[in-house]
């Protein structure tokens, strides 16, 4: 095998895995699929075999594509295997081996990176909901005819704001002078399109905390979806664009409210060779990247006044917890709400099965994983499941529907619940 292929696959990194098996109990796909090849150590061994010419690239396609990328294995690995780098390398090789598809190229090269296309998606969804077409479609099962399980997810979408409200958003907000911090807000692509109101609620929480909030012009998709599908070069270009956009002003924080986006942003420096100009610029960028929960805790500028007679459980985003290492801050914020009862899941670290677009392209496997999660959720009997990532939020809404408890349990983003508790400046 060529040295170039070995380099792309991260062959040298595979030797850090000693095949001890500590990763097995932590891996959702190993638990639900019961195959060694669908465990972290099994996938690493496959990558090593491909690099050594003992297996073909196609031999590793199904196991690699069935990996959630939740990174739970990295939290228990005693030898600190760089599983994420190995996984991305394998996906890059797989992507290069398959024929180009015009529709796929459009989505990754044009659709997701474009704020205009994202706004158009949000506005079209608003029209679909407002006109009554959604009710008609659901009544007659029209979306069930789609090639992907779109009907499952469109029913879980939140109400979209009117186009006028999207157009009315400012690029800069300040309420307290002088502000306690200057925040560059990373709005995301899907997050801003589908969860526009949650983004606006995030801005409101920051303003009440005393911060100035800026939407830097030129920001784009974080590149997570591109990296997860092996499009590494495209992901690097998006990283450069975001770094340049946020360099225009000096920010104390670069804030996001989506666990998957934050996990990509915080690893930008790994995309560039150490010592290069882009690596140094990426390091400065990464030093400012924070999840909204971290910033709200650090600013400590809110008092929650509304008593909420409600029981909740917290479903942590895998990428927020396992990559960004943010664990205590969301819980600390929830515990500040008067009257709120927090019930911890038995297995909070177990993935919900969303994983970017995993639950769309690997629907049945994602539902097997979701069923395990929902058994845990129903076991603690909450009124609400609190999440910190848009994919998790939709996945939990879908799980609630599948369990037939939609009238009893709902799913809510952490930011939306915090604002509902009417926090006031200290």
Automatic annotation (TrEMBL):
<keyword id="KW-0479">Metal-binding</keyword>
<dbReference type="Pfam" id="PF02754">
    <property type="entry name" value="CCG"/>
</dbReference>
<dbReference type="GO" id="GO:0051539">
    <property type="term" value="F:4 iron, 4 sulfur cluster binding"/>
</dbReference>
<dbReference type="GO" id="GO:0046872">
    <property type="term" value="F:metal ion binding"/>
</dbReference>
<keyword id="KW-0249">Electron transport</keyword>
<feature type="domain" description="4Fe-4S ferredoxin-type">
    <location>
        <begin position="7"/>
        <end position="38"/>
    </location>
</feature>
<keyword id="KW-0677">Repeat</keyword>
<dbReference type="InterPro" id="IPR017900">
    <property type="entry name" value="4Fe4S_Fe_S_CS"/>
</dbReference>
<dbReference type="InterPro" id="IPR004017">
    <property type="entry name" value="Cys_rich_dom"/>
</dbReference>
<dbReference type="GO" id="GO:0019154">
    <property type="term" value="F:glycolate dehydrogenase activity"/>
</dbReference>
<dbReference type="InterPro" id="IPR012257">
    <property type="entry name" value="Glc_ox_4Fe-4S"/>
</dbReference>
<dbReference type="Pfam" id="PF13183">
    <property type="entry name" value="Fer4_8"/>
</dbReference>
<feature type="domain" description="4Fe-4S ferredoxin-type">
    <location>
        <begin position="57"/>
        <end position="81"/>
    </location>
</feature>
<keyword id="KW-0408">Iron</keyword>
<comment type="function">
    <text>Component of a complex that catalyzes the oxidation of glycolate to glyoxylate.</text>
</comment>
<keyword id="KW-0813">Transport</keyword>
<keyword id="KW-0004">4Fe-4S</keyword>
<keyword id="KW-0411">Iron-sulfur</keyword>
<protein>
    <recommendedName>
        <fullName>Glycolate oxidase iron-sulfur subunit</fullName>
        <ecNumber>1.1.99.14</ecNumber>
    </recommendedName>
</protein>
<dbReference type="InterPro" id="IPR017896">
    <property type="entry name" value="4Fe4S_Fe-S-bd"/>
</dbReference>
<dbReference type="InterPro" id="IPR009051">
    <property type="entry name" value="Helical_ferredxn"/>
</dbReference>
């Amino acid at each position: 095998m060529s040295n170039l292929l070995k380099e792309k696959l991260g062959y040298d990194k595979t030797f850090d895995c000693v095949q001890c098996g500590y990763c097995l109990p932590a891996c959702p796909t190993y638990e639900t699929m019961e195959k060694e090849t669908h465990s972290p150590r099994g996938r690493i061994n496959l990558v090593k075999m491909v690099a050594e010419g003992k297996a073909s690239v196609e031999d590793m396609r199904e196991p690699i594509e069935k990996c959630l990328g939740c990174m739970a294995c990295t939290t228990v690995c005693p030898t600190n295997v760089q599983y994420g780098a190995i996984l991305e390398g394998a996906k890059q090789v797989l992507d290069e081996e398959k024929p180009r598809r015009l529709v796929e190229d459009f989505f990754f090269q044009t659709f997701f990176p474009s704020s205009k296309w994202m706004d158009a998606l949000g506005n079209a969804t608003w029209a679909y909901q407002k006109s009554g077409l959604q009710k008609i479609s659901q009544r007659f099962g029209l979306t069930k005819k789609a090639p992907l399980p779109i009907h499952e997810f469109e029913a879980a979408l939140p109400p979209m704001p009117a186009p006028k409200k999207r157009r009315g958003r400012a690029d800069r907000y300040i309420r307290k002078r002088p502000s306690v911090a200057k925040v560059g807000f990373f709005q995301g692509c899907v997050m801003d399109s589908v969860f526009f109101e949650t983004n606006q609620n995030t801005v409101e929480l920051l303003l009440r905390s005393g911060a100035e909030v800026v939407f830097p012009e030129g920001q784009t998709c974080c590149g997570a979806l591109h990296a997860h599908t092996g499009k590494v070069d495209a992901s690097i270009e998006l990283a450069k664009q975001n770094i340049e956009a946020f360099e225009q002003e000096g920010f104390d924080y670069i804030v996001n409210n989506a666990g998957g986006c934050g996990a990509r942003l915080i690893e930008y420096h790994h995309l560039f060779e150490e010592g290069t100009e882009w690596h140094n610029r990426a390091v400065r960028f990464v030093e400012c990247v924070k999840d909204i929960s971290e910033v709200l805790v650090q600013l400590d500028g809110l008092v929650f006044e509304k008593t909420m007679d409600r029981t909740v459980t917290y479903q942590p985003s895998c990428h927020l917890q396992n990559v960004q290492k943010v664990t205590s801050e969301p819980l600390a914020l929830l515990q500040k709400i008067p009257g709120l009862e927090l019930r911890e899941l038995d297995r909070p670290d177990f993935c919900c099965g969303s994983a970017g677009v995993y639950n769309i392209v690997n629907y049945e496997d994602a539902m097997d994983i979701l069923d395990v999660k929902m058994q845990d959720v129903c076991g603690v009997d909450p009124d609400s499941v609190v999440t910190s990532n848009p994919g998790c939020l939709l996945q939990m809404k879908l799980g609630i529907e599948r369990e037939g408890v939609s009238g009893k349990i709902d799913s809510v983003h952490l930011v939306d619940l915090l604002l509902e508790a009417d926090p006031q400046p200290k």
